[in-house]
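pls ignore typos typing on phone
nicotinamide-adenine-dinucleotide + seq
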Amino acid sequence: MDYRIKNRWALVGGASKGLGLGCARALAREGAHVVLVARGAPALEAAAAALRADPEVPAGTQVLTVAADITTPEGRAAALAVRGSAYDIVVTNAGGPPPGDFREWDREAWIRALDANMLTPIELIKATVDGMASRGFGRIVNITSGAVKAPNEILGLSNGARSGLTGFIAGLARNGKLVSAGVTINNLLPGAFDTDRLRTTLEGAAKKTGQSAEAVAESRRKTVPAGRFGEADEFGATCAFLCSAQAGYITGQNLLIDGGAYPGTF
Ligand code: NAD
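k done
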């Protein structure tokens, strides 16, 4: 299926690795021009070079980079400046907050989590949606977490910040002026995906319990009905579909991609 997003412009946060890169790759393979944002220039440039050399990315597709911290006003300004805020697609994403005990988190820790996982997506949306509406097409996809539906106690900073974003999006995504002008806003909720973030979490758990990282990974895999971790490209494929012309009637949704791990009916 042709997703009809060739030559659209997409901004993708946290795009040098993991799920953000999976989304950028899938969008670029559909012929959308992509602007990749990540903090570390070497990994970012390597990711961009791989996309430019990808035989499935159509010739003429632009792959640009911005080495910046998307959670800061300066970083967002640099990312938005590439297109003068005129993006057709925005995938909001940054690293998740650290795990821990809520007794150890002070106000600063909460502000950092809220900045990264709630306020940064809201600021990016604020800067881009009205322009999208005026041009008659827009897609916002927020990478949140399966923890929004099934919270994990040690990820309290993530549970709190992402729930705030989810509540905000639930209202905005149903704004008649935006939806009738072709702008949709949806959240993608990853379960366990084979990325650096998951590997670091598993290594942390291994150290705590004295097990090997592979033993911890194996018992985690057993909690997933699919019997495996997800791949970033599977995540990216779903993101590209939500950004397609065909997905114009889908807005305000929270889509879990978790290999069946969430046990509820809704
Ligand atoms: P990852 O660590 O593999 O990749 C994160 C990417 O974001 C990297 O490119 C990194 O450079 C970039 N990044 C981090 N902070 C940034 C910042 N402030 N500014 C710009 N770029 C930044 O992580 P991932 O597994 O791809 O996770 C992406 C998001 O999904 C995270 O918020 C994570 O908490 C969430 N998540 C992941 C999983 C999983 O299993 N992988 C599960 C649930 C939720």
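The mean pLDDT is 97. Residues 107-135 form the longest helix (29 residues). more later
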